[in-house]
Amino acid sequence: DAFLFCFLSGSRSSKTFKPKKNIPEGSHQYELLKHAEATLGSGNLRQAVMLPEGEDLNEWIAVNTVDFFNQINMLYGTITEFCTEASCPVMSAGPRYEYHWADGTNIKKPIKCSAPKYIDYLMTWVQDQLDDETLFPSKIGVPFPKNFMSVAKTILKRLFRVYAHIYHQHFDSVMRLQEEAHLNTSFKHFIFFVQEFNLIDRRELAPLQELIEKLGSKDR
Q1: CA quadruple 7, 196, 77, 107: dihedral positive or negative?
Q2: Which residues lie in coiled coils (predicted)?
């Protein structure tokens, strides 16, 4: 991973940050998304993230990854006016975690940039992966590539960083907008999902470890 993960010591807008990624209606993936939404409605998130019987794991991970991209996109879209070059000159998740951007193709050497710039790079990069039919096939019967799981893991690891930034740097704005319940539910769903399929390394989750433990203990 080309990321540098360095430890350092010591008026409401509903604009969407990026265009929503739509799953085509009538497709099997659309049915899976509907299933996911229905089980979420039951309130049991641990159960909601489990692979439905007889379904393909790659397809289940693909549908949910698209859904998390859309959720995070929308959540970040509500606070973009508070996340500026001036307020967030570096992409961080609290004082101990700072992220530098590299995607391995256009930007090979990690660069230090502001949070809005970093998140723009990140979401654009994710969108490009989701739009790539060879990686995320939307047509029935088109197989997923061999490297699908590693690509999905990288996408989810990077999407986590947007949650981490929002929680550490913008939670007061989230509270003022009365979005905290929405943010917490979305993040809890995300965490239960990545835990169920072991998709993000524990070290990467460190910036929100306390919150993750709290969300998990409430659900035992």
Answers
A1: positive
A2: none
